[in-house]
């Protein structure tokens, strides 16, 4: 995909981000990860989105402009990274759920632990951020210009390898088909239904 073309709804951008690469340059070294799993969150129209009830200090980055990174803490434990999409002023973002380390594996392994299997280095949104070295300081980073964290085109992903399914671990709008991933890729996280999930309707 053309990574500069992010001014579209999250559910349109999410599958096109598969294969794109997030790179983080730090004094420790550089880690680059090719994206293999994403989830779309549609802002105020999406009950599972952090922006569902409107703009707050926490979610302000989600409202644009597109191309910036929205970072939040999950369950007080893990950082999670989202790529903001859509029209400026309308909340829309794609959660990066998993990826394959394509540069800097040694550094990613030091961050994740020496015993972690290679396919698991960036499997799951928290692990992805840990391997890439993403924390709260990167909230709002411009991924397209002037930031040590950058988004770039990667290998073109054949359409027949892209799978679609319900989102992982959310209790609201969990059955929306907004999760996109590469078939058969060992870096993709396992599907898990939230124990608090209730039947819903929607996208």
Automatic annotation (TrEMBL):
InterPro entries with a match to the protein in the record: Formyl_transferase-like_C_sf, MPG, MPG_sf
EC number: 3.2.2.-
Keyword Hydrolase: yes
SUPFAM superfamilies: FMT C-terminal domain-like
Keywords: DNA damage, DNA repair, Glycosidase, Hydrolase
Matching CDD domains: AAG
Gene3D superfamilies reported for this sequence: Methylpurine-DNA glycosylase (MPG)
Record GO biological process: base-excision repair
UniProt superkingdom: Bacteria
Keyword Cell membrane annotated: no
Annotated GO MF terms: alkylbase DNA N-glycosylase activity; DNA binding
Xref: Pfam families: Pur_DNA_glyco (PF02245)
PANTHER family attached to this UniProt entry: DNA-3-METHYLADENINE GLYCOSYLASE
Family membership: Belongs to the DNA glycosylase MPG family.
Protein name: Putative 3-methyladenine DNA glycosylase
Organism whose genome encodes this protein: Streptomyces griseoflavus Tu4000
